[in-house]
Amino acid sequence: xxxxxxxxxxxxxxxxxxxxxxxxxxxxxxxxxxxxxxxxxxxxxxxxxxxxxxxxxxxxxxxxxxxxxxxxxxxxxxxxxxxxxxxxxxxxxxxxxxxxxxxxxxxxxxxxxxxxxxxxxxxxxxxxxxxxxxxxxxxxxxxxxxxxxxxxxxxxxxxxxxxxxxxxxxxx
Length: 172
Fold this sequence. Notes:
Blueprint: H1 3-11, E1 14-18, E2 24-27, E3 30-39, E4 45-53, E5 60-67, E6 75-81, E7 101-104, H2 107-111, E8 120-122, H3 129-139, H4 144-157, E9 170-171
Parallel strand pairs: 2-9
Antiparallel strand pairs: 1-3, 2-3, 3-4, 4-5, 5-6, 6-7, 7-8
Helix pairs in contact: 3-4
């Protein structure tokens, strides 16, 4: 898969086929929610995920995984992450992992036999998990009506200046 194909998959208008639950569930030391999407014509299928540390609210990841109809291995197309410090066990303050960053699949990584989304770039498009959800929904082209239907609270809170948990409610 080349970079153009990756960009096309991200840009496809998508609808949510299995919506996220109202409440977020706690598992181990994180809060999580998953949902499924597909292209409007039903040809392309995706899984989306959101994770946030219960201990460190700034440590979060929101991503989109492509699930090919061919049965080939799925591939993470994009992950929007908060700062989480070390990278491969090394402290490198200038590395993207010390800042909000985006991992995007690339043909470069695929050609090297690495995880598609291995490489990350720093971003100023979001600081909080709420802002990352808003950014993510826009970048992966989820319909605006479904953004509002399933993520109203997160979108409203994405404009708040306070840093807090994205997930106020949990289910056991």
